[in-house]
Amino acid sequence: MPLQDHNRQPLLLNQEQQEEQDTAYDSDEKVHIVGIDGDSENEDTPPFSWRKLWLFTGPGFLMSIAFLDPGNLEGDLQAGAIAGYSLLWLLMWATAMGLLVQLLSARLGVATGRHLAELCREEYPTWARMVLWIMAELALIGADIQEVIGSAIAIKILSNGVLPLWAGVIITACDCFIFLFLENYGVRKLEAVFAVLIATMALSFAWMFGETKPDGMELLLGVLIPKLSSKTIQQAVGVVGCIIMPHNVFLHSALVQSRDVDHSKKGRVQEALRYYSIESTVALVISFVINLFVTTVFAKAFYGTELANSIGLVNAGQYLQNKYGGGLFPILYIWAIGLLAAGQSSTITGTYAGQFIMGGFLNLRLKKWLRALITRSCAIVPTMIVALVFDTSEDTLDVLNEWLNVLQSVQIPFALIPLLCLVSKEQIMGTFKIGPLLKMVSWLVAALVIVINGYLLIEFFSTEVNGVPFATAVCIFTAAYVAFILYLVSRGIAFASWCRPQKQVVVVE
Fold this sequence. Notes:
Layout: E1 3-5, H1 15-20, E2 31-32, H2 50-56, H3 59-64, H4 70-83, H5 88-112, H6 116-123, H7 126-158, H8 165-173, H9 175-183, H10 187-212, H11 216-224, H12 233-243, H13 246-255, E3 259-260, H14 266-302, H15 313-324, H16 331-362, H17 368-390, H18 394-411, H19 413-423, H20 426-429, H21 436-464, H22 468-499, E4 505-507
C-alpha cells in the first residue's frame, strides 16, 4: 500500500476506485501537454512556455460564456439605458469578483483532479447533497430558459418574424446534438467553435460601438470613478447578480480536467494553475470589453430618454434600428447576430454543465448523449411552455425574466459556500489549499455577492408578494433557506477546525 504525505499532496483515489467513479473526461479525451515527459524527477515548476499556454487555453473561454449570456446582455443594456456610463466601474469590479470565484473553482479541479459536484457528493450527507443537486439543477434550468429564449428572439429577428419564438426554441434545442457531434472530434475542436462564437459577439458589438460612437471620456470616467445613486441601485444589483452564475462554478472545476496533468508532481499542478489563471484572466477581460460595448451603446442611445425604462431583449434591436437607421448593414441584424452567438454558445455550455452536475452529484455512469438529452429536456420543456405563453407579450416576458433572475440569485450560496469550504480544506487540497489572506478575501466577496442578491430578493418579493397564503409560504421558504445556508457555513467551520490539527501520513489502499 503506497504511502502519501498529506501535507504535500491531496488525497488521490486508487485505480479501482477511479474506475467506479463517474469522471469529467476519460483519459483518451484529455489534451496531452507537451514537455511533461522526460524529467520525472524534476519537482520544480517548469519555465513559462507560450506553446503550453496555447495547449492549456480553452476551458477559461468556455467558462467566460456565462459572463456573456443573454441574461447578462439584458442587464448590460438596461444598466446603460437607465444609468448611462455610471455603472461601468461596477461592471469591472463585478467581473474581477467573478474571476476570483472562477480561479478558485479551477484551483479545486486542478489540485484534486475532480470537480465540485463530485466532491460535494462525498463531503456532504445524502440529504444535503440532494438539496445541493436540486438547487444546482434549478439554477441551470433558470439560466437555460433565458439563454434559449435569447436565441429564439435572435432567430425571430433574423427571420423577419417568420419564425415565431417557439420555433426558435426548437431550433436552439437541437444544439445539444450539434454539441455531441462536435465532441466526437475532440475537446480542442469544440473549444475552437466557442472561440468563433466569442469572436462573433466581439465583432458584432464592436460594430455597434462604432456605429453609435459613445463618448470616450465619459466611458473612461465611468470605469475609473465609482458612482451610485438611489435611482440606479436596482441596475447596480442586476450588474453584480448577473456575473456569478451558480452552474458556472460547477462547470469550470470540471473543464480544467480536460488537460492531462501529472498530479504526482507538485510542480506540474502549479504549472497548470498558472496557465489556467492566465487564460481565465484573458478570457474575462475579453468578456468585460464585450459587456462594456453593450452597456455604452445603450447608454449613448437611450440614457435620459423616455424609452430607457422600457428596453429589453425583445425590443432592443428595433429601438436601435429606429434611432440609427440602416447604414452599411442594419444595426438590428448586427444586434441579432451577436445575441444569437451569445444564446447558442451559452446553451451549449449549459448542456455541458448539466452533464457534470448530474454525473457528479448522482455518480451516474450514463452515456454522454443520454445524459445530454436528459439535461436538455429538463430545460427545453419549460422553455417551450414559456415561449407559447409569452410569445405575444413583451411585458410578461420581462416579468418572467425577473423571476428567473430571482431563481438564480437564490441558488448562488449553494455553489459559493461549498466551493470556499472545500478549497480551504487541507484533506481535499493538500498544499494547494488557499491561504488565510485569500480565504478572507474570498469569503468577503462571497458575503458581498450573497448580500447583494439578498437585497434583490427582498426588493422583488416586497412588490410581488400579495395575500396571506403567499406571504406565509415565502416566510417558511425563507426560514428553511437561511437555515440551510447556516448549516453549510457551520459545516465549513467544522471542516476547518477538524483539519487544523491534522498533520499525519494518509494511507491510500
